[in-house]
């Protein structure tokens, strides 16, 4: 799926062969939809997939991933006040380059961990300090940390990071909380469903996990975590399974998607469904527990992208993969703007 606004992000996936689909503005399906996608400056580093992203204040950070030849460990920051990328410190020499990791931010710092380095699953975590532009090993003083895995999700609420699900040879449902104030990990309530390659986001100080797969099947489960009660709540399914009409048009199920938050709403886009890449974009309203279709993602259809949201209320999608193509483009979604096929 995280941050000053308790947002996450995360790109956490395994490479698969997919069918390339191109999405262009001006299609009939977009004419009646709301929101506008704006293309901004490309990421300064290599085009890549399976990277991670987090944000601190008004700055988003994107790093790690795979460029078609190498696993990466470089990091780049995007300043939303200047709309420019700057290269920042890479993961340290003793940290493995990786794909399918997780990232979150808490208490003004960024955290990256788990993943796959091409040879083995990883369990280590690294913490980024934007003031000194340095990374350090996260050596928690006590508690149970997530085991080695990839394809997990992460988010943060009130400066506590949460990491769970994923794949370690089997699909997982365990979840853990990291407290920067005490530098400790602790297990929290398991996710109700084993899942990998899902996405996560935060609204109203609650974490949500949706999409993904288990046992080779896409799942329509959608669940909300309340840190105050340490409990997950089943939300409405994200496929058209009810007897009501609110979900008749739902096409939300997928894996390797991205999620971000703008204002009081969350958005899910991109991803893969049955080896076909997706561009449809869905807006979630927590007050009604319903999803609404918004303007399709304008870039090339893709999976294994990343997304991040910033404190000034902006949401972005970057990088990703379509078949053997890797991307470095950056797109911002403006849900309140009028659709414009010229930008």
Strand and helix layout:
Elements: E1 36-40, E2 52-56, E3 59-66, E4 71-79, E5 84-88, E6 102-106, E7 109-116, E8 121-129, E9 134-137, E10 153-157, E11 160-167, E12 171-179, E13 184-188, E14 199-203, E15 206-210, E16 213-214, E17 217-218, E18 222-226, E19 231-234, E20 258-262, E21 265-269, E22 272-273, E23 276-277, E24 281-285, E25 290-294, E26 306-310, E27 314-318, E28 321-322, E29 325-326, E30 330-334
Kindly describe this structure.
The protein has one domain (28-334): Kelch-type beta propeller (Neuraminidase), CATH 2.120.10.80. It is 0% helix and 44% strand. The protein has no helices and 30 strands. Strands 1-30-27-26 form a four-stranded antiparallel sheet, with no helix packed on it. A four-stranded antiparallel sheet has the order 2-3-4-5, with no helix packed on it. The protein is globular. The two termini are 27 Å apart.
Describe the structure using short key phrases.
single chain; 343 residues; mainly beta; Neuraminidase; four-stranded antiparallel beta sheet; disordered N terminus
Summarize it.
The protein contains no helices and 30 strands. The protein is mainly beta.
- Sheet/helix structural class: mainly beta
Radius of gyration: 18 Å
Number of domains: 1
CATH superfamily: Kelch-type beta propeller
Q: Number of DSSP strands?
A: 30
In the predicted model, the low-confidence regions spanning at least 5 consecutive residues are: 1-28
Taken in chain order, the helices and strands follow as EEEEEEEEEEEEEEEEEEEEEEEEEEEEEE
Shape type:
globular
**Between the first and last Cα atoms, what is the distance in angstroms?**
27 Å
């Amino acid at each position: 799926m995280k941050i000053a606004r308790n947002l996450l992000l995360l790109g956490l996936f395994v490479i698969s062969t997919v069918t390339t689909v191109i999405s262009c503005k001006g299609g009939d399906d977009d004419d009646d939809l709301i929101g506008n996608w704006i293309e901004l400056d490309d990421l300064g580093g290599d085009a890549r997939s399976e990277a991670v992203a987090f944000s601190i204040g008004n700055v988003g950070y994107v790093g790690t991933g795979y460029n078609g030849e190498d696993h990466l460990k470089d990091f780049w920051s995007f300043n939303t006040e200047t709309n420019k990328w700057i290269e920042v410190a890479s993961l340290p020499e003793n940290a493995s380059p990786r794909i399918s990791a997780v990232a979150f931010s808490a208490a003004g710092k960024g955290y990256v961990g788990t993943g796959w380095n091409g040879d083995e699953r990883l369990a280590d975590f690294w913490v980024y300090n934007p003031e000194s532009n340095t990374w350090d090993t996260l050596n928690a003083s006590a508690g149970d940390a997530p085991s080695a895995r990839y394809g997990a999700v992460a988010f943060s609420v009130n400066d506590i990071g949460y990491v769970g699900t994923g794949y370690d040879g089997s699909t997982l449902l365990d979840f853990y909380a990291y407290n920067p104030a005490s530098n400790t990990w602790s297990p929290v309530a398991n996710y109700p469903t084993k899942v990998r390659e899902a996405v996560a986001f935060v609204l109203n100080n609650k974490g949500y996990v949706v999409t993904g797969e288990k046992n080779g099947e896409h799942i329509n489960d959608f669940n909300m975590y309340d840190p105050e009660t340490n409990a997950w709540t089943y939300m409405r399914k994200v496929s058209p399974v009810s007897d009501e009409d609110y979900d008749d048009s739902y096409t939300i199920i997928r894996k390797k998607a991205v999620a971000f938050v703008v204002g009081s709403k969350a958005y899910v886009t991109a991803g893969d469904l049955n080896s076909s890449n997706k561009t449809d974009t869905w807006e979630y309203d927590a007050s009604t527990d319903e999803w609404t279709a918004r303007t399709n993602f304008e870039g090339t259809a893709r999976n294994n992208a990343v997304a991040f949201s910033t404190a000034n209320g902006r949401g972005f999608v970057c990088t990703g993969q379509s078949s053997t193509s890797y991307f470095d483009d950056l797109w911002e979604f403006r849900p309140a703007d009028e659709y414009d096929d010229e930008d």
